[in-house]
Specification:
- The protein is mostly helical and 105 residues long.
- It has a single domain, classed as ACP-like (Non-ribosomal Peptide Synthetase Peptidyl Carrier Protein, Chain A, Orthogonal Bundle), CATH 1.10.1200.10.
- It contains four helices and no strands.
- Helix 1 packs antiparallel against helix 2.
- The N and C termini lie far apart (51 Å).
Length: 105
């Protein structure tokens, strides 16, 4: 299972391959369009590869607000953290009675 600490190295390797850039170009302030040449088709393909590699789902509007490689890394790290977080047990609804065995008698 991927941990948030694994994200930077794994994402850098995947992104370099998907975007056909050198890993050294993948710095936090690198702009996706201007510096890395990510167009809408590349963003879709890269996003799908990221989802598959990390077992996450990127928000549908992610490419509308994510502008730099650092923002992508932060988003992926948050989603990986959320995906790996233990799920809290369901809480009983207010007013619901706890299930108890029927009284025998």
């Amino acid at each position: 299972m991927t941990t948030p600490e694994d994200v930077p190295d794994r994402l850098r390797a995947l992104s370099a391959e998907q975007l056909h850039v050198g890993a050294a170009e993948l710095v936090p302030d690198a702009l996706l369009g201007d510096d890395l040449g990510v167009d809408s088709l590349a963003a879709i393909e890269w996003g799908m590869a990221v989802e598959d590699a990390f077992g996450i789902t990127l928000p549908d509007d992610a490419w509308g607000y994510v502008r730099s490689y650092g923002m992508v890394e932060d988003l992926v790290r948050r989603l990986v953290r959320r995906a790996g977080a233990p799920q809290a047990p369901p809480q009983p609804r207010a007013g619901a009675q706890a299930a108890t065995p029927a009284a025998q008698g």
